[in-house]
Amino acid sequence: MTRQSSPPSTQKVSSRLGRFSSILVLLGLILLWYGISALNLFPAYAFPSPASVLVSFQEELTAGRLLNDIVASLWRVAIGFVLAVGLGVPIGLWLGQHLQARQALVPMLNFFRFLSPLAWIPFAILWFHIGDKPAIFLIFMATFFPMTLATMVAVASIPSIYFRVAKDYNYSGIELLTQVTFPAVLPQVITALRMSYGIAWVVIVAAEMVGCQDGLGYGIWEARNGLRLDSAVCYMIVIGSLGMGIDRLFAELTKLPAVRWGYER
Amino acid sequence: MYLAGMMKRAGIKIVIGVVAVITVLGILRYRPFTGSGAAVVHKGSNKHADRELTVGFLPVTCHLTCPVTDFASKTTATNTNFNSRVFTDFPTVVSALEAKQVQATFMIVPLAMKLREQGVPVKICYLGHRDGSEVVVGKNSKIRSLVDLKGKKVAVPSLFSNQNFVLHKLMVDYQMKPTDINFVVLPPPDMPTSLAAGAIDAYFVGEPFCAKAELDGIGRVLYYARDIWPSFISCALVVHEDLIKSQPDMVQDLVRGIAQSGAWAETHRAEAAKLVAPYYRQDEKVLKYVLTADPKRVSYVNLTPTDKDLARIEDMGLSMGLLTKRTPMDELIDRKFVPDVIREAPIDVAQIPSPKK
């Protein structure tokens, strides 16, 4: 969660400094990698050098495999995640307002939340065969439950004064939901979005290692099978960078005027 | 009200954004405007085959005839076009077969027996190759025979692999107890590195994962499979009975193609390495080493499954308790598609694409 407690001017300077130092850390990391591989501390098959990774990066890119794999993974995450959010948030909103339903369903939701989505892999393949569908199912299973529970908790923790005021204004039903409940929980829902997206991105890589014929996770598995760790590292870099980039986009949501109040405390 | 209006606008923007992202990804994913995916190119004399079959394989030399048949069906005259589909692990292959997404695939023989035992109607129609597996130990280790592996860790690719079965048979021969060796199941690509790291003391797996350890200077061969079990069988071509019933002529084409590809690979080893390297996405050097360093290392002839060969494997599986029910050999094997005379596939070596560097 971003906290903006410092005055604007110093914040600008420190964020520029922060960005600069993050680049320094990154460069340092690459240098360290280069140094270790140049010293031949580990044999080449166990520790690919930056140069060999760069070559394999170019190889995968020119063969068109990398782009295809990126699109495949993004597609699966997008569909699975949108389905989970589209179902999870409304269900969470409803559960948050109905104590009895909450008592009945929360243990079940919690049970499924703690089942690793990877445990579903054999069933995903049996039920959805091979291709996009099993991966989308796994993403859904990984993100639906945390999304639902987070939304529910957010609704349940809305100060009761909000509802009392809403009653004074004669809000009820859909109006109460769109005018009071949803705006009140939106900041927490966005935080939950970021977190479950993080889970989705971690899961997609593992999910694609079986039952898929393309995708970033499949790329790593195939690199292993082909005894090409340099190509595996190239895929790891892509996975990390993409995950980080998309998280930045989600972070932008927290700057929307409608939700910024939720983070400024 | 002001806040609500602002939220509404932001909400609409977000919805539009999400829809746009999904649309773009969907278009990139399925490319609806570029026609029907990868068009099959037939350069053969008959210009086009009127039917297609997808055949599953893993990038191991035991499945080498699969991509060779794929290549041959696209460059020579055939009635069926074969598309080889690479898998990376056997559980996925099994699921694909059960779901009938592939109706013909290569797989380890005991796994096919297990499937049959569980009621999946599959038949073994041909074999992958003979030999082609080795017990590898650390290059500088003092292990000279199986007895030295007592109390050590040995990796096998699957409990249902013939490698696992054969090692147990050898242990019986050496009068060792089944608990004398700690068996661990590891994915084959991880075996050479695990050996180098000292996590395991030996492994028994199909090529090219043994050659890799030799070429990297990590390991040496303790036993060739043929030393333990002459004409060792690891994998077989497994076909779903539904396909055999519905399109027997296609299965006929398949088994003929696989058999002819084997006969061709037996005599064109370096060319075969070059041909399959892009299908396997492996280093041609390693494959070439496996195929050419010692011709006895792998062989692609004499691949008609016999009752005797497979009964021996089944006996071992039953005695180890991994198989629970004896499947009669005539239920397991279907030999009627194997051609009487196996000619070499008429592959034009000049058409094999050179690797781009």
UniProtKB/TrEMBL annotation, chain A:
One cellular component term from this protein's GO annotations in UniProt: plasma membrane
Entry's localization field: Cell membrane
Keywords: Cell membrane, Membrane, Transmembrane, Transmembrane helix, Transport
Pfam annotation, one family: BPD_transp_1
PROSITE patterns: ABC_TM1
Residue ranges of the TM segments: 20-42, 74-96, 108-130, 136-162, 174-193, 199-221, 233-251
CDD domains: TM_PBP2
Residue ranges of coiled coil: none
Membrane topology: Multi-pass membrane protein
Domain ABC transmembrane type-1: 70-250
InterPro entries: MetI-like (IPR000515), MetI-like_sf (IPR035906)
BP term (GO), one: alkanesulfonate transmembrane transport
Amino-acid biosynthesis keyword on record: no
Record has Transmembrane helix as a keyword: yes
Record family assignment: Belongs to the binding-protein-dependent transport system permease family.
Name the UniProt record assigns to this protein: ABC transporter permease
Species of the source: Spirosoma profusum
From TrEMBL, chain B:
InterPro entries in the record: NrtA/CpmA_ABC-bd_dom
Keywords: Cell inner membrane, Cell membrane, Membrane, Signal, Transmembrane, Transmembrane helix, Transport
A cellular-component GO term for this protein: endomembrane system
Coiled coil stretches, renumbered: none
Membrane-spanning intervals of the chain: 12-30
Tagged with keyword Cell inner membrane: yes
Keyword Metal-binding carried by entry: no
Subcellular location: Endomembrane system; Periplasm
Record family assignment: Belongs to the bacterial solute-binding protein SsuA/TauA family.
Protein name: ABC transporter substrate-binding protein
Lineage: Bacteria, Pseudomonadati, Bacteroidota, Cytophagia, Cytophagales
